[in-house]
């Protein structure tokens, strides 16, 4: 640079020059080679520096003056032609020491050759400014002169971007010691600092008047990312030490950190280790059992879930809703709802039986079940209930008369609470539990409709389900968006604790996918005596840094442990990141679908075995679907919960009943036979209850008969056609009837005995 002595002739600068100076703020004129070559000259001429530079105060005076003040040290007699340069090694983030006054400097704009003289950056004697890495003055506590301790703030090479370097502090003391002042490492060193650490220390101004120059490097408590070995702005000698792995006794331990084990900003990531000794052992204090007497038949198991309390609630609310619907203003006078008859519990059970039977026999429309067409003729539906009555009950089906604007699930809340409370009352599950989402298909407009691309029903109402590995649903929660009690920040953790609130502190083991799992949740569950295992997302908070960057061969596993939590990474066809608080890094053999033996981590093997409870339950519901299109979303949820109750009854029956196990189809048919008994058997039982007698018909009529010229009037009995002979396509008139039978049909003596035997 060509710098001229004296003040600038012009006080104004153009905007383009200002922008050019600002863009050069953090650029350097010298390479690392130039810095290290000139540093050797500085070290050899320290005695000459003492005669030319004066005291420490004079050094800082030249660096901390205002823009209009020259910043060139006095001429040096022996090496006046060689300019001095200063290079700085980045240190850890400093912490301000209250005992020392500091002056911080950041890199200043780099003036061009033409603008240097205009800005007056030169000495009064006309000598040129020394070319060096420039520092922009930034006064925190004001300019400090004649202090025993002064600090420089230097750019940070550890930061991720060279253009956004964080400042570091260099502190100069007069006690003749070089040390790292931090809570992590604070070690005294020898006074011959330049000779001992010439390859590791920055070119900092040394007090020429002191026989024992000293430097104190302050490191803050803040943790910064590790220095990457690929950076271009790192000293070659430093990188040689890092790559070689050799250690200098007086340097801090974290100086040699590699990128894989570099500390993170999260507190949990700094102390992960491969030692599994922190894993905890919990005992399962419960026992899988049925808290009520075991059912003796499938219908009794079904009535464990659908009890009289729930039926009475539905009957009461449905009748009340039918009155409200009938009294609406837009209902016509000749509408069917006007002739509503109160629903009874027996009729409701028949309605539920017909509803479940629509899943056994699939037809596109509900009205097709009552058609008399030869392609649709299914007489069983018409024998139990008329089509109009069935559709009318379905229209008025209701569960609560209470309205609430805050609770979006108010219309189905009583049935949900009854299901969850019933399972808590009658059943105590085993150790292994699974937690996952389930979807109820809904394509209509709904405020809390969700989309999950991996589900069979992508659009619909989302359920969070806690289940056993065999598909028994223990508890479920409907996601109702913003107004839900579990909504907001930490939603996934809130859902887990909401579903497990009755199962904590018992030693259960919950298997979850990566939507829920995190280090923080695992620690909280472990504090409540509950294990958790499942897959883990790589961007979760508090994940160890090394586990995300490690490279593995196929079949290899990497495990880290902290506070009883195991985070592992295993590679099969792709990388699998998992977390567990019970299983360690043990590998075990398992058989794949094709019959081959594969070695996998124990946590992944158990996860595959116990995680599929919710999916199994969805699979069983899909075999005999009962859902129909409707304009009321809560009715679709009611049908879904009715099917869940039936599958739960199947699992409880097969687990605790002394009878033989049944599959789902046979179990359903046993229940339907109880809900929809054979009409012929019903009539036969009713016939046997009343004593039937064959009596002569009492109804008579007068008949006029003319014989020749004589007219006679006779009284005759009005005969009836025999019911038994008519069924055999015979026309027989009889004078006898059975008044105990419905309609008082006529019978001949033979048919009467056959019908009433």
In total, the number of strands is 25
Overall 3D shape: elongated
Briefly note the structural class of the backbone.
alpha+beta
Low-confidence stretches: 1-14, 21-126, 129-269
Helix count equals 23
User: From the structure provided, what is the oligomeric state, counting identical versus distinct chains?
Assistant: single chain
CA-to-CA gap between the ends?
127 Å
The radius of gyration computed from the alpha-carbon positions, rounded to a whole number of angstroms, is 45 Å
Percentage of residues in strands: 15-25%
Mean residue pLDDT? 73
Major sheet summary line: 9 strands, mixed
- How helical, in percent, are the residues? 25-40%
Biased composition (Low complexity): 47-57
InterPro entries: PGBD
Biased composition (Polar residues): 67-103, 144-164
Biased composition (Acidic residues): 25-35
Ordered list of secondary-structure elements with their pairings:
Blueprint: H1 15-23, H2 32-44, H3 46-53, H4 56-63, E1 104-106, H5 113-118, E2 136-138, E3 150-154, E4 168-172, E5 179-181, H6 193-196, E6 216-218, H7 236-244, E7 289-290, H8 298-305, H9 308-326, H10 345-360, H11 379-384, H12 387-396, H13 413-426, E8 427-428, E9 432-441, E10 450-451, E11 459-467, E12 473-478, H14 491-499, E13 509-512, H15 519-527, E14 531-535, H16 545-549, E15 557-562, E16 565-571, E17 575-580, E18 587-591, E19 597-601, H17 602-610, H18 613-623, H19 633-656, H20 664-675, H21 679-689, E20 695-696, E21 700-707, E22 710-717, E23 720-721, H22 723-727, E24 733-734, E25 736-737, H23 749-755
Helix pairs in contact: 8-19, 10-20
